[in-house]
């Protein structure tokens, strides 16, 4: 009798809630996760100077290797591939050669993956869930890293991406501009809350306020991921799990298409890939199923920048459109290569599994990986360029040109939120 009474009085856990309340709680946690991602992004933009900071970094990109690494650093600091891409488009519109901007675009692809890797840290206390979520996060990193290793040498020697982008831009130049601003429902729903949290720290000195905002965002992410994983393990069963696997995990091509469509709808590759990480941590999806979905997110993240580039006019409008098309072509070709080349297909998965196993044994591997790949190595290159190489006059002139500023204003007016 006493045991029965104790059972009745025991507090309800997320897993024991009624079905409708479980899904309501899950949706609330997803919203909190997205707000946390937004707060982290806003904090990084605050401390790094946003678009101005990215532009300052690119002033030292005097060669393709530096362009890739500084593109990674700029995007990791700004936490928004859309901001970095718009800066690159503006630089090209202002006179920077497309050949120099292509490696920057490749680096921006790599830098934007830091967000979902941070999200995976929410499962640090649960070894099994952390291993799965860290695999799912870093498989996207290694896809972009291997793409750079494969395509950058080819681009340096033969310029196929630059040439294909130029041909396609010639077909499309002069078209009407377009915007996805009104379709960005996720950004419209989460941005006010994210902005309110960040604004709470505005009275503090910039470095302190931005750091506290980042810590608050990461804390919100970790809280959301921990409880979201617990809920999803119980909620995604039967019909719900079957529908998810049909949309994402049944075939690689379906996963790519789903990742592309979802990213176009939410206008944020960081959002798309961050949402898939808790599903992997909960054991609902495997790393092999997540991989095509994240590749599709790379394609989806190009759409708004491409549409915004069509609104640019002036002497260099064809080059601005060209670099936006290069971004799209690069991602599409990369997905095709990794989907249909047997000896390459499993490289990102195997590397992600290896790194996750090391991080599972020693969490220092996870933090060391994040800081070395996204900050220490790119920051070292940036410091070396700053100390030992004079600024490229062409980049300086382009960065200060009136046309580039006009271009940035036009793209910013679209309020792109692809990350």
Describe this protein's structure:
The protein has 419 residues and is mainly α. The chain has one domain (18-234, 243-413). It is built from 22 helices and no strands. The termini are far apart. The model is unreliable at 1-12, 177-182, 390-405 and 414-419 (pLDDT under 50).
Query: Treating each run of at least 4 consecutive H or I residues as one helix, how many helices?
Result: 22
Q: What's the number of extended β-strand segments?
A: 0
Quote the distance from N terminus to C terminus. 56 Å
From the alpha carbons, calculate the radius of gyration and give it in angstroms: 22 Å
Strand and helix order: HHHHHHHHHHHHHHHHHHHHHH
Strand proportion, as a percent range, falls in under 5%
Descriptors:
single chain, 419 residues, mainly alpha, 22 helices, 80% helix, globular, disordered N terminus, disordered C terminus
Structure summary:
This protein has one domain (18-234, 243-413). The chain is built from 22 helices and no strands.
Question: Topology of this structure?
Answer:
Layout: H1 2-9, H2 19-48, H3 50-58, H4 64-78, H5 81-93, H6 98-111, H7 114-120, H8 127-158, H9 160-172, H10 185-199, H11 206-235, H12 238-249, H13 252-266, H14 269-281, H15 287-300, H16 303-309, H17 317-340, H18 342-345, H19 347-361, H20 364-388, H21 393-400, H22 402-413
Helix pairs in contact: 2-3, 2-10, 2-11, 2-14, 3-4, 3-5, 4-6, 4-20, 5-6, 5-17, 5-22, 6-8, 6-17, 7-8, 7-14, 8-14, 8-15, 8-19, 9-17, 12-13, 13-14, 13-15, 14-15, 15-17, 16-17
């Amino acid at each position: 009798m006493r045991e029965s009474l104790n059972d009745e009085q025991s507090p309800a856990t997320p897993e024991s809630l009624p079905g409708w309340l479980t899904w309501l709680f899950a949706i609330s946690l997803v919203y909190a996760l997205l707000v946390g991602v937004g707060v982290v992004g806003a904090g990084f933009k605050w401390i790094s100077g946003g678009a101005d900071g990215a532009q300052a970094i690119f002033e030292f990109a005097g060669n393709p290797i530096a362009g890739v690494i500084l593109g990674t650093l700029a995007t990791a600091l700004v936490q928004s591939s859309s901001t970095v891409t718009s800066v690159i488009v503006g630089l090209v519109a202002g006179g920077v050669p497309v050949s120099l901007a292509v490696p920057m675009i490749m680096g921006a692809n790599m830098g934007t993956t830091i967000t979902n890797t941070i999200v995976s840290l929410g499962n640090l206390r649960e070894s099994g869930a952390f291993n799965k979520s860290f695999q799912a996060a870093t498989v996207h990193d290694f896809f972009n890293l291997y793409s750079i290793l494969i395509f950058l040498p080819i681009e340096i020697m033969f310029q196929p991406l630059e040439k294909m982008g130029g041909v396609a831009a010639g077909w499309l130049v002069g078209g009407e501009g377009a915007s996805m601003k009104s379709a960005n429902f996720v950004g419209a729903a989460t941005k006010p809350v994210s902005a309110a949290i960040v604004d709470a720290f505005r009275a503090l000195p910039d470095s302190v306020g931005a750091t506290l905002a980042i810590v608050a965002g990461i804390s919100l992410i970790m809280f959301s991921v921990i409880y979201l994983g617990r809920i999803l393990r119980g909620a995604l069963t039967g019909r719900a799990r079957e529908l998810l696997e049909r949309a994402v995990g049944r075939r690689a091509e379906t996963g790519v298409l789903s990742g592309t469509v979802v990213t176009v709808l939410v206008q944020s590759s960081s959002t798309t890939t961050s949402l898939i990480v808790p599903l992997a941590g909960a054991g609902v999806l495997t790393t092999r199923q997540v991989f095509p979905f994240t590749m599709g997110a790379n394609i989806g993240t190009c759409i708004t920048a491409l549409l915004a580039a069509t609104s640019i006019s002036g002497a260099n409008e064809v080059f601005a459109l060209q670099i936006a098309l290069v971004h799209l072509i690069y991602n599409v070709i990369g997905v095709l290569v990794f989907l249909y080349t047997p000896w390459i297909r499993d490289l990102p998965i195997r590397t992600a599994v290896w790194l996750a196993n090391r991080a599972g044994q020693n969490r220092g591997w996870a933090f060391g990986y994040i800081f070395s790949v996204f900050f220490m190595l790119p920051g070292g290159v940036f410091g070396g360029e700053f100390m030992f190489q004079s600024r490229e006059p062409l980049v300086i002139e382009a960065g200060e040109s009136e046309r580039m500023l006009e271009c940035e204003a036009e793209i910013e007016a679209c309020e792109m939120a692809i990350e």
